[in-house]
Amino acid sequence: MLRANCRYFSSSFRAWAGHSKWQNIKHTKARNDAKRSNTNTKMANMITVAAREGGGTDLALNVRLATMVENALKMSIPKRVIEGAIARASKGAGSAAEESVSITYEGVGPGGVAYVVETLTDNKNRTAQQVRAAFMRFKGSLSPTSFLFQRKGWIQLGEGADFDEVFEKAIDLGAEDVVEKDGEIVLYTETSQLAVVANEIKKDYKIDNMGLSYEPEPDQAVAELDEETQTKHYKLIDALEELDDVNTVYTNYRE
């Protein structure tokens, strides 16, 4: 199964030679503050997208938004950030919030791996330049790749659900497939059926997460990369995910 959740940051910190203890403390604090700010930005973007794509800002009617807000609270994202993200999705025409738009970039990177990068930005030129620069740093380029993927809805259930029971019920509700990996059960749906299936399945099971993703076409996945190329692949993902405007990175490399 394609891992679509963001790996936001590396947690490592190197104390540079010649820095005093206080300088290192200030450096560490600044880095941690930057991490927190980046996490807040990404979660806010995802909440805005969930509101826009999931059917509005009413949590009682938009199960995708409600799930995203619940996860944000578990991550200790400030309520003001959450409320601001929801407000941004509900602003009318002509507002500054409306200028935040979802843009998807496509590219090819190390080893011929295909990437799809979802962003939310208020400055298209800035984001395009940053994404392009990340690809170029690893000898990649922006290039059409979405034809190598299928757009799917997905629903991840909480622990304790019985796979056979879930499978039968989910298929009856309209899910296309149900998979289990590492103790997690994930339902896949057509994009138009995501909310329908989620609203029904939540009556019997806890939904941990859900959304829309790009899943590689079965015959278009990259099965193997040598160690050096694999390292470059992951560094490119990290470089993209460190950008504030980037929400999610999908690839057709099967780990």
Give the SSE layout.
Layout: H1 21-54, H2 63-74, H3 79-90, E1 101-108, E2 114-121, H4 124-137, E3 141-142, E4 149-157, H5 163-173, E5 177-181, E6 184-189, H6 194-201, E7 207-216, H7 227-241, E8 246-251
Antiparallel strand pairs: 1-2, 1-3, 2-8, 4-6, 4-7, 5-6
Helix pairs in contact: 1-2, 1-3
Helix-strand string: HHHEEHEEHEEHEHE
DSSP strand content: 15-25%
CATH architecture field of the largest domain = 2-Layer Sandwich
**Would you tell me which CATH topology of the largest domain applies?**
Alpha-Beta Plaits
| Tally of strands | 8
Please tell me how large the radius of gyration is.
19 Å
Structure, described:
The protein has 255 residues and is α+β, with helices and mostly antiparallel strands. It folds into 2 domains: 21-90, Arc Repressor Mutant, subunit A (Orthogonal Bundle); 103-255, YebC, transcriptional regulation domain (Alpha-Beta Plaits, 2-Layer Sandwich). It has 7 helices and 8 strands; from the N terminus they run H-H-H-E-E-H-E-E-H-E-E-H-E-H-E. The protein has helices at residues 21-54, 63-74, 79-90, 124-137, 163-173, 194-201, 227-241, and strands at residues 101-108, 114-121, 141-142, 149-157, 177-181, 184-189, 207-216, 246-251. The strands form 2 sheets. The chain has a 4-stranded antiparallel β-sheet with strand order 3-1-2-8. The protein has a 4-stranded antiparallel β-sheet with strand order 5-6-4-7. Strand 1 (101-108) and strand 2 (114-121) form a beta hairpin. Helix 1 runs parallel beside helix 3 (79-90). The termini are close together.
